Amino acid sequence: MPVLTERLRALPRYELVRHDGETRTYDTPSGRMPSVTTVLSGSRDNSGLEEWRESIGVERADQILKIACFRGTGHHTNIEQFLTDGTEPRFDALLTPYWKSSRRFLDHIEKPLLLEGGVWHPDGYAGALDCIAYLDTDDLQPTLLDWKTADTPRKPNKIYEYSLQCAAYVNAANYVYGHMGLHIQQAMLVVALPDEAPQIEIIDESGLTQYYQHFLARLQRFVYAR
Known about the structure:
The chain is α+β, with helices and mostly antiparallel strands. The protein has helices spanning 36-41, 47-56, 58-85, 96-106, 156-177, 205-225; strands at 17-20, 24-28, 31-34, 109-121, 125-135, 143-149, 187-193, 196-203. Strand 7 (187-193) and strand 8 form a beta hairpin. Helix 2 crosses helix 3 and helix 5 (156-177) packs across helix 6. The longest helix is centred in the first third of the chain and has 28 residues, at 58-85.
């Protein structure tokens, strides 16, 4: 693998064909593969979620999840637009509190290399990562960034799931772009909280290695359960 002697200027963006059915999959150069989020959701104990849905009513639960999904998509769009051309989003009663949370952190990004790019790995999964960028604290290797939104700080069990996701994306990105010298050694979870500083979790190279082994175990469980 090439060794970087200077910072990368950009990374080519791959748009993988996505299939949304019973399970979300992507068409990749190595064949059709399940998405990272599908692997994780299909290999964890969801009994707690089902109990929550029953406790508040299925209709209300679906509405809450729908709003959360809309909020997350809108937040990603706002950040992508800002990092692309510097456009600040217009006021939105739902989205603006989360935008304000993440806005100051975005000033630490010196150069985005890839936004919403498709990646895959021969271990048998694919997905679309949020962002690979150089932060003002980075040297030659950039950081993988993952944007989230939440009403309150995420608890350890949720951060663990997010960390598995990041580890999967890091390994896939290093596989796809390794010929260019990419070897990401750090990921950051940036969880936007309404009208307050974001919850930031840093995952170093050692953590990424451990989380990836956990992800592979979940991938195996997912495959066997099908």
